[in-house]
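User:
I would dearly like some help making sense of a protein record. Take your time, and here it is.
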Amino acid sequence: MVQLISAPLLWVLLLSGIVRAVYYSVLQNTIAVDTASYLNYSANILKGETEGRRTPLYPYFIKLVGLLGHQNLIDHVVSAQILLSFLSIVVFYKISRSVFKNQRVVFAASLLYGLMLPVINFDKVVITESLSVGFSLVFIYLMVCYLQKPTHVKAWIATLFVFIAIMLRPSFIYLLPLLIVFWCLRLIICKQERKFSLSGLAALVVVVLLLSGYSALNKRHAGFNGISLVGNNNEMAVIVSAGIYHSGSDPEISAALQYNINLEKKYPDRHIPGINIMARFNPDRVHQFIVNCIKNQPGAYLQHIGGKLLALHNANIFTNYADHELSPLAFRIEKIEYLVFNIPFMVLYVVIVVDLMMFIASWIKRRNAPWLRIFLWLIITGQLAVAMMAGYSEYQRLILAAIPVLMIVLFNYVDKAVLRLTELSELKLMR
């Protein structure tokens, strides 16, 4: 019994559970702008039906939770998210034990994840972010397991999981090229594991076929040969902000956009509806227009993306999304949250650049690719890139799934520093 109580994971779960319970008590169950589209999802994927705006996994998660009772559906969905979020601490702890050598660092990193209020905040919001964090951790855990002891089964499971992640949140699509690069590099560099890498590539073919099949269903039901229509909405806003909407080789859409822009300038203080681009034009036509805008003006597009990164450099990477109760305790906790969890995007940029240089140097020095470090770097960078290129606001929410990955990267340096200090202390004692 004493050994059970003193187990580090149990203490992490206990402390995290207490803090989370207090924090949840000052948050309200929150319905976001996108919530209704998940709640009202009516397509039956088993019959080959889809809805253009939403992939099916989160709506079906809601329907599954709804079996407990539709009368308090929002409460039940939030409770399920809270439970899954709490269980994700175990996954983070397992990853930490595999990555870090010092047990105190494992404990500290896992406890910080358990107490990461800006991440926990989304457990009370009925959108995909809460589950996305857990999915990101499960994917990393699967890859860690593969790297520790490669097998055909692990290669297949880790790769097929990407399809499930994309069905939860289409922005996970960046994992597809990431895995293509990963398996191809492993195939070339790790000659003794080529058969496992081929299994990974074979699983990727299956994922691509599944995504192609889903896109074909979307084409039939929503007129869009892609995974989600939401991408069109977001990317259209990006090309308008970049000022490249006259370069899409489709004068009719460009004219419609210009009309809307002129209308906003003429009546800045009034909401006057203009041309509904997404309703007037075929989704595939809109998507091709967006692609042509970027293709014809790559310099202006990249300059706009760089401008967004620069504009965000002082902004906090965390956000507070769930509604707070109006109570003294809620106000105190909110102040603590903004004080403790206040890290500018510039720190994220620095971590990305420094970590890239460090693992390249390690690769050259040891002549052995640091596969996990490369993989974690690609996840953080990929998530940031997707947020910048396919989003026009709420970037903190869009990069949320990368926050646990960022923590693993940072604590990896803490782990190395602690081990180095321990070695130096032992050398002094020996002298």
